[in-house]
Amino acid sequence: MLDRFTMPLTHRPLQRLATPLHQQHITPDQVTFTAFLIGITALPLLAYEQYGWALLAIVLNRLGDGIDGALARLSGHSSDAGGFLDIGLDFVFYAAVVLGFALANPAQNALVAALLLFAFIGTGTSFLAFAIAAKQQAIERPHFPNKAFYYLEGLTEGTETVAALVMFCLFPAYFPTLATLFAIACLITTATRLWGGYWTLRRHNGH
């Protein structure tokens, strides 16, 4: 929901951060994978309730996720392969963070973590399934022209997800409540994406 507003604000700072990497001939895929390796450390950190360090790993991962796209545009190396790697590792990272909270306090967090993972499957599959169909039908993405995949909007997008992960780390005792609320928002996103994607494809096909 907020990505259309936050992405233009981050475009120029990310380009500045990407410029020295471009000058050192570092590739977008290298940044993507490095950011993932940093982000995945949040899993053991959360399991041992090191929430401050986990938050740092999450923030650095999300920063790298923005820099790799800026670097791809700067170097002209945008590709479907890079986009695939980026989105695939993103979903693994998101799931790892939720698993980390489940391991930190299984009695309190495990059930709601399972609910949130269920909701993540809905948002992820609805996003990717539509992206495949949109690619085949050559449907444009006017609000997010720099995305590797067609970006079907929803209540919970990248900005909201990052905000939720940060809140989880800042207020771990409230994870069950916060995660439940975010899971509900993700399920709403899944429903609206399925509905919107279905009718978008029907209209595009002339039905």
Short structural description:
This protein has 207 residues and is mostly helical. It is built from eight helices and no strands.
Structure, described:
One of its GO terms (molecular function) is phosphotransferase activity, for other substituted phosphate groups. The protein has helices at 3-23, 28-40, 42-47, 51-75, 80-104, 106-137, 158-170, 175-204. The chain is mostly helical and 207 residues long. It starts with a helix and ends with a helix. Helices cover 80% and strands 0% of the residues. The longest helix has 32 residues, at 106-137. It has one domain (3-204): Four Helix Bundle (Hemerythrin (Met), subunit A), CATH 1.20.120.1760.
Question: Which key terms come to mind for this protein?
Answer:
8 helices; globular; single chain; mainly alpha; 207 residues; Four Helix Bundle (Hemerythrin (Met), subunit A)
Protein topology:
Layout: H1 3-23, H2 28-40, H3 42-47, H4 51-75, H5 80-104, H6 106-137, H7 158-170, H8 175-204
Look up the CATH topology. Answer: Four Helix Bundle (Hemerythrin (Met), subunit A)
> How widely separated are the two ends?
28 Å
* CATH-defined superfamily: CDP-alcohol phosphotransferase transmembrane (TM) domain
Strand content: under 5%
Shape: globular
Helices, by number, come to 8
Number of domains: 1
Helix content: over 70%
Q: How many β-strand stretches?
A: 0
Average pLDDT figure: 87
Biggest beta-sheet profile: none
Protein name: CDP-alcohol phosphatidyltransferase family protein
Keywords: Membrane, Transferase, Transmembrane, Transmembrane helix
InterPro entries: CDP-OH_P_trans, CDP-OH_PTrfase_TM_dom, CDP_ALCOHOL_P_TRANSF_CS
Organism: Vreelandella sulfidaeris
